[in-house]
Amino acid sequence: MIVAPSVLSLDYKDTKSQLQQLEESKAEWMHFDVMDGHFVPNLSFGPDILKAFKSATSLFMDVHIMVDNPSEVSDYFMKAGADLITFHSETVHEIKNQKALVEKLHANGVKAGISIKPDTCVENIYPILPYVDLVLVMSVYPGFGGQSFIEASLDKIAKLRKFIDTNHLNCLIEVDGGINATTGEACASVGADVLVAGSYVFKGDIKAQVETLCFEK
Ligand code: DX5
Ligand code: ZN
């Protein structure tokens, strides 16, 4: 299991020490949430903050853009050091436009992910799955950390696992929202590859909390 702590919940009074603990933990990725105050009712970070994290750690930068104009916004974050950019299917409707954005990311050496909100059916994104590196299932309504896991997400993960395996696709399944040791284990059991966790990791001992999410595959 890949663990991707979400820095939305990092304690910014104590950034240096928290980053040090992350580096020493078993986390391989850092999950970086970009919010525009329009697609979601919150604002978060700009590209300069990503650049700072990129220079301060060796973690893989997993950038989740919750914005209405993902093509424009992804340009800023590609330049700032994103390794993967995940955009929302709800913001790019036609498959040809989704493919164009995926191709732009790949042409710049950045991996591409597609995400769905809790009310979006998994079937809507089947056509793009052969082209992306990752699918992100939102297991809370995007915008804030600290919400409870929506159980119906498990069925979505299981459906995606089946579709990806049946079609021999090279696409990771990531789950984001309300992840702790219990919900994380449930996601692992139905086929998740990457767990994002914000409040669960940063509200406790970072290394110990990450360790509890490292389920065997
Ligand atoms: C929510 C964000 C999440 C958030 C998860 O919109 O996409 O990445 O940080 O936070 P927790 O793990 O606290 O639910
Ligand atoms: Zn996220």
What does this structure look like?
The chain is an alpha/beta fold. It contains eight helices and eight strands; from the N terminus they run E-H-E-H-E-H-E-H-E-E-H-E-H-E-H-H. It has helices at 15-24, 47-56, 70-79, 95-107, 153-166, 181-189, 199-202, 206-211, and strands at residues 2-5, 29-35, 60-66, 84-88, 111-116, 134-138, 172-176, 194-197. An eight-stranded parallel beta sheet has the order 1-8-7-6-5-4-3-2. The radius of gyration is 16 Å and the shape is globular. The model has no long low-confidence stretch (mean pLDDT 97). D-xylitol-5-phosphate (DX5) binds at residues 6, 8-9, 31, 33, 64, 140, 142-143, 145-147, 176-179, 196-200.
Q: Summarize the biggest pleated sheet.
A: 8 strands, parallel
How many strands appear in the DSSP assignment?
Answer: 8
This entry's quaternary arrangement is single chain
Helix- and strand-based class?
A: alpha/beta
Order of helices and strands, N to C? EHEHEHEHEEHEHEHH
Question: How far apart are the termini?
Answer: 6 Å
Low-confidence stretches: none
Shape descriptor: globular
**Number of separate helices:** 8
Roughly what fraction of the amino acids lie in strands? 15-25%
Lateral arrangement of strands in the main beta sheet: 1-8-7-6-5-4-3-2
Which cofactors or ions or other ligands sit in this model?
A: D-xylitol-5-phosphate, zinc ion
Element layout with pairings:
Layout: E1 2-5, H1 15-24, E2 29-35, H2 47-56, E3 60-66, H3 70-79, E4 84-88, H4 95-107, E5 111-116, E6 134-138, H5 153-166, E7 172-176, H6 181-189, E8 194-197, H7 199-202, H8 206-211
Parallel strand pairs: 1-8, 2-3, 3-4, 4-5, 5-6, 6-7, 7-8
The chain binds D-xylitol-5-phosphate and zinc ion.
The site of D-xylitol-5-phosphate (DX5) has 21 residues, from strand 2, strand 8 and helix 7.
